[in-house]
Each structure stands twice: as C-alpha cells, then as structure tokens.
C-alpha cells in the first residue's frame, strides 16, 4: 500500500501558487484560533480552554510543517489541518465547506509527480457538494472520516473487485469540426490533406444546424470514451464556435474552445478571414463566451498554424492572449514540408518555434500540437517559456507526418499531453491515443534498440496528469489530490458484453493495463466531471 501522504505533495507548484498556499495556511490558522477565542469568551470553561491550547500547539506544528514542506499545496494545507485538529474542532470548522455529496470505496489508480502509477487499494474517496475531492484515505479510517465529514457509512458505494476509478482522460488537441469526416481521408500528407478535405468541410460550419449536429456528436462521443477535458479547435465561425462551448457546457465536459484564426489561405480562398475580421471576431468570441460564465468551458486563442497566418495576425493574437490572460493553442513542426514552408514565409525567424515566440504566442498557457521535428534548441525554448506539447500519434502515423521522440521531450522537461487530433487522427477515443503512443515509442525502439520504450504507466500519466499540466489545469484536475475537482472514470473491466475476458481475479495494475490496451466505452461505467455524473448520458 502506498503512503497516502504522498498525495498531498506537489513540488511542481508554481512560485505564485506557493505564496498563495502559504498565505492560505496562515489564514486558516488565524481563523481557527480566532473562532476558539470567540467561543471561549462566550463559554470560558476548561474544555474550550484546553482546546485553545491544543490549537496553539497545532498552529506551531503547522508552521513547522510549513517550513519543512516549504511550499505546501492548498490540499496539503487542508490535510495538515485535518490531521492536527481534534475531531470536535474539525467538526465545527470545515463542516459547512465540505458537506459530502458521495463517497466511493475501492481501488483508485492515478499518477503523481513522483510516481507514474500509484495504486490505492481499499481507499475511501469523498466528494463534496462543490464537486471537489474532500478526502482520499485508507478504508480503515472510515469511522474517523464519517465523524469528521458527517456522512453515514450506509451512504458509501462499494466498487466490485474488477472495478476501479481512474482520473478522467485529457485530450489536449482535437478538431471538433473535423469529426464529420473522421475515419476517412487519410491518404495524403498534411498540406495537401488540408486543402483537399479539411478546409472544404470546415467552411460548412457557417451553417449552425450542421454545426449543432457535429458538435453534439463529438462531445457525446468523447465523454462516453472518458474524455473529461478537451481542448477543441472549432472553425473560423464565431457563432458555431460559441455553440460548441454551449454544447460542452450542457453535457458537462471541461473544455477549452478555440475559434480558429487564419488570414492566409491561397488554396481554398473562401475559407479565410481578413486580418481585421479575424481580430474583431476573436475578441467578440472571447467576450461572449466569458459572458456565459460557464464554470468549466473557457476560450483559447487559436491561430491555426503559422502558414495560415500573417505575422500581423500572429502579433494581434499574442496581444489578445496576453491582455486577457488566455490559453493559446496551435500546431508546430508536424511535417518536414511544413517546417520548410514556415522558413520561407518567416525568413526573419530563427526557427518555427521562434515564429511563435517572437509574437508572444509561447507562454505557460500555450499548447502546441505535434512538434515531431522540433530541434533541441526549440525544445529548450518551450521549457523556458513553459509552453507544452500535445503528442498526437494516430494523426502522425495516419498522415505520415513523423514520430515524436517523447523521451527527448521529457528529457527537456517540456510539459506533455496526449491528443487525438481528430480527424488527422481517425479515432476520437483517448484510449486509442494511449495505444498509438505506445506504438510510436516501439517504432523508435525498432529503429534504435537502445531507445527506452515508454511503459504503459508512463503513457497513462501523460494521458491524465500530463494532459492537465499541458493545459495548465493541473491545479483543478489530473489526479485524485484532495482539493481538486473530481474528474474520474469508473472502470468495470468485466463489463457484460464488453471486449475484455477476465479468466481469474487480477491485481489492479493488470486490470488497468488490460483496460488501456483492450478496453472501450463499454468498460466505462460512469464518468464524472467536477463531481457531476455526466455518463451515462441523460437527455
Ligand atoms: Zn490538429
């Protein structure tokens, strides 16, 4: 059994957040001491007095822990508080904030910064009414937890032996609009493929009914397949892009939605914008989407890729992202032909990455798809700026684009997630992306036997925690850390009529490996996003 305390450490926490967490802890200490002093004034009996001293001792211990931890996460602060407060104070302090909505007991698997795969057997996980993980503890702590959080033990749902919970899958790169032709049109390299298939199809999204049909299908399909967070490209059409945001919100998916920007397209001339339109419509899209106040759906600034944009447009988009502190997504170094084209179009730039860098489009909220042909210098630039990559192996194979050297990306400490890249990638399922990522790694090992193939545990981490880091959403989702939103899949490996035959009882690690390699949506019994059950889908 792993040490549950490991859950609460996050050494990758950013400096700004570290300060926030330290302040948060001090605020908690202050408010608890104040509340005890107040109650002592009203009822100065010995019990409260002793509680008061207990609290003071606890406060000292928290401060010591703070110094020792240096930079505790918010959830670590809560955990320290829970550990040190006597049950009664605990019940009086955080009860109102942490009313428990539901509790599951069974096996939980997830990744942490330290471990690609952490298995928690017979764990208890409670989700509060805000959809956040209130606790994850060993089963033997049941009595203490039920007292502290005020839930009845009869309210607990017990998982079966062949079931487990894992974090929701994070698709860091998917073109919602291209879902209409997924599974076809895989017979050309990228630049020809865009002209022959993509641009003509995307131009149809000015028709809102067509858009509604495709966007409803893709959100349903990805949710059913366990994608709790998706980073979407829509098309150049503002209304249809807003509609995608609305549909994702209605179904309860966490999503970044991008209205595509492109003011350069010599081949399909009717599918492009003027510089002014692109800029104006991007601002309108951002404003209107933010005004909807969807809790889980946010806009992302989306230049299609450098060859589709003039320098002036890239400049504007960099400004817009900076002024509104927004996410950015685009493509980079997918094929060699494209890299050559970018060199011709932007002769003043040192590299492809430099084109984006010069226009303020490489930030710690940027995710770039592919990067198969990036140099080490460009990867260093990603590391320096905090920009991330989305690995889309199905697409890279299907369009014969290249094979990303994931080990080299990780060696450069660049944040990395997985993407389906529908419809360059023909499958909208992140399980397919996991398998193709393993295949891509094996191709590199075939070419060079010294290349260390990725393990399924490593790819599992990239598909979950890695994706949340790549999208800078890891303070909200990605694993089962206390304080994060409960984004989770309930997996039933032995689902009736499903694709997996279990011959005997298996350990959780084997169950996870079988699910990742053989499973499909029939094994995904329930999907939760921010504590809301979104699968099975109810109309
Ligand atoms: Zn793409």
Quote the beta fraction.
15-25%
Coarse structural class: alpha/beta
CATH architecture of the largest domain: Alpha-Beta Barrel
Q: Major sheet, described briefly?
A: 9 strands, parallel
Report the top-level CATH class of the largest domain.
Alpha Beta
Give the overall form.
globular
What ranges have pLDDT less than 50 throughout 5 or more consecutive residues?
1-15, 36-54, 67-72, 82-96
What is the CATH fold-level name of the largest domain? TIM Barrel
Give a list of the ligands. Answer: zinc ion
Helix content, binned percent: 40-55%
CATH superfamily of the largest domain: Metal-dependent hydrolases
Mean pLDDT comes to 88
Specify the number of helices.
18
Overall structural domain count: 2
Number of distinct beta strands: 17
- Determine the N-to-C terminus distance: 41 Å
Rg, nearest Å: 24 Å
């Amino acid at each position: 059994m792993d040490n549950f305390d490991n859950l609460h450490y996050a050494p990758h926490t950013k400096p700004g957040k570290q300060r926030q967490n330290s302040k948060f802890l001090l605020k908690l200490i202050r408010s608890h001491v104040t509340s005890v002093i107040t109650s002592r004034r009203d009822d100065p009996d010995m019990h409260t007095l002793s509680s008061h001293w207990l609290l003071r001792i606890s406060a000292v211990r928290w401060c010591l822990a703070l110094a020792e931890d240096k930079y505790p996460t918010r959830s670590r602060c809560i955990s320290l508080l829970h550990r040190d407060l006597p049950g009664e104070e605990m019940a009086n302090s955080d009860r109102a904030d942490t009313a428990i909505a539901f509790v599951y007991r069974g096996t939980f698997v997830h990744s942490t910064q330290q471990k690609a795969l952490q298995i928690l057997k017979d764990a208890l996980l409670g989700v509060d009414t805000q959809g956040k993980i209130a606790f994850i503890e060993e089963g033997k702590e049941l009595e203490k937890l039920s007292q502290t959080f005020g839930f009845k033990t009869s309210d607990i749902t017990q998982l079966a032996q062949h079931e487990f919970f894992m974090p929701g899958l994070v698709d860091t790169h998917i073109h919602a609009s291209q879902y209409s032709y997924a599974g076809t049109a895989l017979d050309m390299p990228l630049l020809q493929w865009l002209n022959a298939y993509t641009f003509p199809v995307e131009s149809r999204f000015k028709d809102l009914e067509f858009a509604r049909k495709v966007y409803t299908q893709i959100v349903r399909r990805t949710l059913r397949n366990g994608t709790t967070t998706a980073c979407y490209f829509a098309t150049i059409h503002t209304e249809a892009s807003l509609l995608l945001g609305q549909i994702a919100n209605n179904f309860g998916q966490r999503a970044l939605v991008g209205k595509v920007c492109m003011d350069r397209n010599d081949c399909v001339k009717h599918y492009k914008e003027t510089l002014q339109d692109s800029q104006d419509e991007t601002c309108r899209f951002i404003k209107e989407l933010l005004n909807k106040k969807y809790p889980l759906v946010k806009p992302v600034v989306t230049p299609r890729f450098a060859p589709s944009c003039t320098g002036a447009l890239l400049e504007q988009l960099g400004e817009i992202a900076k002024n509104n502190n927004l996410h950015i997504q685009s493509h980079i170094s997918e094929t060699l032909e494209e890299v050559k084209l970018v060199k011709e179009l932007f002769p003043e730039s040192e590299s492809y990455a430099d084109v984006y860098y010069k226009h303020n489009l490489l930030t710690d909220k940027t995710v770039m798809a592919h990067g198969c042909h990036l140099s080490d210098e460009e990867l260093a630039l990603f590391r320096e700026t905090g920009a991330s990559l989305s690995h889309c192996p199905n697409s890279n194979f299907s369009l014969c684009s290249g094979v990303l050297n994931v080990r080299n990306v990780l060696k450069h400490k660049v944040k990395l997630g997985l993407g389906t890249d529908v419809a360059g990638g023909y499958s909208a399922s992140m399980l397919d992306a996991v398998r193709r990522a393993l295949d891509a790694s094996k191709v590199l090992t075939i070419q060079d036997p010294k290349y260390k193939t990725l393990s399924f545990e490593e790819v599992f981490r990239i598909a979950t925690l890695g994706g949340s880091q790549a999208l800078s959403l890891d303070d909200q989702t990605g694993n089962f850390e206390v304080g994060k939103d409960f984004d989770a899949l309930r997996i039933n490996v032995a689902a009736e009529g499903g694709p997996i035959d279990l011959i005997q009882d298996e350990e959780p690690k084997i169950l996870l490996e079988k699910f990742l390699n053989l499973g499909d949506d029939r094994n995904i019994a329930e999907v939760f996003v921010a504590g809301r059950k979104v699968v099975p889908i109810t109309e």
